[in-house]
Specification:
Layout (H helix, E strand, L loop, with lengths): L2 H18 L4 H19 L6 H4 L1 E5 L15 H13 L7 E5 L4 H5 L11 H11 L4
Antiparallel strand pairs: 1-2
Helix pairs in contact: 2-4, 2-6
Length: 134
């Protein structure tokens, strides 16, 4: 796609977004982000709470290191993630929800009997289903 075509595509998407939700775009994006964050945290299997506590929400760039937070309930991770999401500048920054424990990908791929269907894909499918998106 040419630069001119790409710019037109971006303008068309921006116009579409602004027409659909001119006043509620940010609130809608934040609600979806909070739903995803809560979903992946609570679907993460718990042995020690390290994997569940390692969900990190960052703005602008993904987390790059695991954190030493045991959070079997997920309450701390959700609270911290919600704080970042509430102040997120939706129009200018990308929001990242990451888990940097070395075995996170194994958990996502069904390695745990507690979460045989993973966390991320399952959460995203639930959101698509709730929105009737195929």
């Amino acid at each position: 796609m040419s630069t001119e075509g790409l710019n037109q595509f971006k303008m068309d998407l921006t116009k579409f977004r602004d027409e659909i939700m001119p006043n509620n775009h940010a609130a809608f994006c934040k609600m979806i982000a909070m739903t995803i964050d809560r979903g992946v945290v609570l679907k993460t299997p718990v042995k020690t709470g390290l994997a569940r506590g390692n969900w990190q929400v960052t703005e602008g760039a993904p987390a790059t290191q695991p954190i030493k937070r045991l959070d079997p309930s997920g309450e701390k991770a959700i609270k911290e993630g919600s704080g970042v999401i509430r102040t997120w500048n939706v129009r200018s920054k990308v929001l990242w929800i990451t888990n940097m424990v070395p075995y996170a990908e194994k958990l996502e791929n069904g390695h745990s009997k507690q979460a045989p269907n993973g966390m991320v894909e399952l959460t995203l499918n639930e959101i698509k289903e709730a929105a009737h998106v195929v």
